[in-house]
Write a structure and sequence with these properties.
There is one protein chain. It contains 13 helices and eight strands. By secondary structure, it is of the alpha/beta class. The protein has a single domain, classed as Alpha/Beta hydrolase fold, catalytic domain (Rossmann fold), CATH 3.40.50.1820. The chain has an eight-stranded mixed beta sheet with strand order 1-2-4-3-5-6-7-8, with helices on both faces. It is globular, with a radius of gyration of 17 Å.
Length: 296
Amino acid sequence: MTERFSAAERITVNANDVSFTCLTMGEGPLALCLHGFPDTAASWRYLLPALADAGYRAVAPWMRGYAPTSVPLDGAYQTGALASDAVALHEALGGDGDAVIIGHDWGAFATYGAAVVAPERWRRVVAMSVPPAAALMSGMLSPDQLKRSWYIWFFQMAGLPEIVVPADNFAFIAKLWREWSPGYEAGEEVAAVAEALGSPEHLAAAIGYYRAMFNPGLHQSQFADAQAATQLPTPQPTLYLHGADDGCLGVDMVGGVAAALPAEGSRVEIVASSGHFLHLEQPDMVNGLILDFLRA
C-alpha cells in the first residue's frame, strides 16, 4: 500500500438504500471510482492520490454487497442497480456537473449506465477493461473469448460456486488474478477480496452480479431505466483503457470500441505490459492517461 494512500479517509454514505463504505481523498469536484470483480476499493490506491493532487475529491466505494459495504436488502445485482448506485452516490456526496466517473470491470458497466441515465451529473467518463455494450456483445461469443469466460458460466451453477470460491483461502480468486493479469503479484489484492467476500452473504452478492447477467427474472423494475441506459452510448467524452495482455477480456475485443463512443473528445488506449488490472500493473501510465484526459 502506498504511503499517500494510507492517508485516505474512510467514510460511510447511505445511498440507494445501501450503506456504502468509501475511501476518500482530496477536495474539489467529485471523482467517483468504481471497482469490479474480484476486487475492492483498495485497488484505486494509486489513482486516488493522483486525483486528489489534481484537485478532485476522489471517492472509491466498496460496491454493493462487498464488505464493509452492506448487502442490499433488495437483493438486486443487475447492472442497472449498479448504475443507479453511482447516481445516488453522486447525490449523497454532493457532486455537481463537474464530477467525473471512473469504472473498472463491473464498475465500467455502472459507469456507462450512470453516464447515460444522468448525463448532467458527469463532465467526463473513464472506463477500463470492459468495453461498452455495442462493442462487448460483438466479441463475447468468439471461441477464444468463450474460453476466457469459463468462470461466468461456472457462476451460473446453483450452490457450487459458493463452495468452490472460498475454499483453500480463496484459491479460486488467486487463479483468476493469475490468468487475468499474468505476472502480477496479487497477494495483497486476493487477501482484500477474501476479506470483502468472507461471509456467505457477501460472497453470494458478488456471484449474484453474474447470475443477474443472464436472468431477467432477477431484474427489478425500479432499475429499468438505468438498466436500459447501460446498453446505450455515453453522451460525454469518454476514455476507454484496456490492457494489452488482458486474460479476462482479450484485447481483440477493443476493435469496435471507438465506434461506440462519442466522436468528439473520446479516446481509446491500449496499455502495454498490463493485463486486466492495468491501473495496478501500470499505475504511472494509467494515471497519466486519465489525468491528461480529465484536463482536456
